[in-house]
Amino acid sequence: MTTKHAVFHTIALAVRKNTDGIADSVDSVVDFLRAGGYTVVFEEQTALDLAPHFADIRSMTAAEIGAEADLAIVMGGDGTMLGIARQLAPFNVPLIGINQGRLGFITDIPLEGMFDALGRILGGSFKAERRTLLEGSVLREGRSIHLGLAVNDVVVARGAGAGMVELRVDVDNQFMYNQRSDGLIISTATGSTAYALSAGGPLLHPALGGIVMVPIAPHALSNRPIVLPESSEIMVEIVRGRDISVNFDMQTFASLMPQDQIVIRRSPHTINFLHPENWSYYNTLREKLHWNEYPSGEGKLS
After folding, report:
1. 296 in a domain, yes or no?
2. Mind listing the pLDDT tens digit of every residue in the chain (302 residues)?
3. Is 157 a known ligand-binding residue?
């Protein structure tokens, strides 16, 4: 969706930790925003990390950003964006990603030319894109012992050195299968370009909003990825195995036991990403997955 009527006043900055030279980039962004008349605040961890350089900028918790900020700019890689997106999802704060990481599937604005892109977005010319999240609850003897939120994926996996895990999977209270494997990835469309892709899962366009389920090194070679409706409720039960953990965007809850259950469904919260007006999901796939590259002398029409 292209929008041209947004008004922003207070803008929160969240910055990747421990990045060489990041203070200089942040300084230039702060100067750019203040010159445009915007009030700039820092996410609280960013404020702690950059305190010696930016003592005059107010620090805010996620809840305070949700209550007071009109927009959040994330400077870092996709991991930084995932962490901030999970915190701000309940507050519906739009997010802009400036890539200071490696891949940059969801932090899509490069440092080079970022001020032109930011100027256009802040002026109201951008594409707004909503992404879904997953929420999960770990149940032990019917009682919830852990809650998690994931932008990319929920992963149930064996520990290093442990043997295969056996999982029972039900979807919408219907038995699907018992699976022996190294684990199982339950992914959003956003996460379909992450771990799920490396495990052989399909790319899922974000507009589809489905849920991708990808086994990790399954014992039965016929066990394949499947795309489920976004309304599905998935129950994964630990039948047997040891050193099993569940990760929500790689945030680990370990020490799962046999008969523990992980119940996963679409979260009621969404994330609203703002992209430059010329942004294209397919351009991102071409650039990040190198679809437009060929071995020397191959793939070219004469």
Report:
1. no
2. 444 446 899 999 999 987 777 888 999 999 999 999 999 999 999 999 887 778 889 999 999 999 999 999 999 999 999 999 999 999 999 999 999 867 678 898 988 889 999 999 999 999 999 999 999 999 999 999 999 999 999 999 998 777 899 999 999 999 999 999 999 999 999 999 999 999 999 999 999 889 999 999 999 888 899 999 999 999 999 999 989 999 999 988 878 999 999 999 999 999 999 999 999 999 989 988 888 766 665 555 54
3. no
How many other β-carbons are positioned within 10 Å of the β-carbon of residue 10? 16
Is there a domain that residue 179 lies in?
yes
Any binding-site annotation on 153? yes
Asked whether residue 270 is marked as a ligand-binding residue, the answer is no
Domain span at residue 53 reads 2-125+277-289
**Three-class secondary structure of residue 112 per DSSP:** coil
Beta partners for 265?
135
Tokens encoding 127: 């594409």
**Is 261 labelled as part of a ligand binding site?**
no
pTM: 0.90
115 and 45 in a single domain? The answer is yes
Catalytically active residues are 78
My answer on whether 138 and 239 are in the same domain is yes
Phi-psi region of 281 (alpha: psi -120 to 50; beta: other; left: phi over 0): alpha
CATH number at residue 282: 3.40.50.10330
